[in-house]
Design a protein that fits this description.
Layout lengths: L6 E9 L2 E4 L2 E5 L7 H11 L12 H13 L12 E7 L4 H12 L8 H4 L6 H10 L5 E5 L5 H13 L5 E10 L2 E10 L4 E2 L2 H8 L1
Parallel strand pairs: 4-5, 4-6
Antiparallel strand pairs: 1-2, 1-7, 1-8, 2-3, 6-7
Helix pairs in contact: 1-2, 2-5, 6-7
Length: 206
């Protein structure tokens, strides 16, 4: 196996009413108390994004979708693309949609649970939403951990490069539950400003 030196070329975050890319605020609202869905829709409209399915997604997928838009802004990817991997993680899986699905089942006035909710009762559905949007056909994975596990993310991403599975990997953390949220995405490739190390991942996340 070859030892690959790869880099973090871009990173972004969505937290506390602010959307940042490479440490610079791209979009924000005056109040940190703004609901996430309102923040994401405001950014979507501000950037004139055209993707009607966005409004049908669950909140976790909307968050991941906008995160990928921010991260990949002004970056051209081949379509379709077999060389871009996608590795995400969170701590709450799809629990928000799971709860909504359970509520729809227990609703005595609703004979059938909503298929529009049920489809999002897997955390990795947000991988699919990003892949469809950017026509990604590379390897992907979704990890669940109590907190951001920089070592696991680093190991898995390095392995993908060392086994020549990818030329780029979109990585990060995307979590939402009961109104609380945090997204940190970063792009790993063969050139960039920061070397891909566990320490750098921890710095970006924090």
């Amino acid at each position: 196996m070859n030892t690959s030196t790869v880099y973090i070329s871009h990173w972004c975050s969505i937290e506390a009413g602010e959307i940042k890319r490479n440490g610079e605020i791209l979009f924000s609202k005056e109040s940190e108390e703004i609901e996430l869905n309102d923040l994401l829709k405001a950014y979507y409209r501000e950037k004139n994004i055209s993707y009607p399915k966005f409004f049908k997604m669950d909140t976790l997928s909307k968050l991941a979708f906008i995160g990928s838009e921010v991260l990949l802004e002004n970056i051209e990817l081949e379509k379709p693309n077999l060389d871009v991997g996608l590795v995400l993680s969170n701590s709450n899986s799809s629990l928000e949609s799971d709860k909504n699905h359970c509520e729809s089942i227990s609703d005595k006035d609703n004979f059938y649970p909503s298929p529009a909710v049920f489809v999002y009762t897997l955390a990795n559905i947000c991988l699919a939403e990003i892949s469809i949007r950017h026509t990604l056909q590379g390897e992907n994975a979704f990890f669940i951990s109590e907190k951001f596990d920089a070592e696991t993310m680093w190991n898995y991403t390095q392995y993908m490069f060392e086994t020549n599975r990818v030329n780029r990997v979109i990585c990060g953390w995307v979590d939402y539950l009961d109104g609380g949220y945090k997204l940190v995405f970063y792009l790993v490739e063969k050139q960039g400003n920061k070397q891909h190390t566990i320490e750098e991942l921890q710095n970006i996340f924090n």
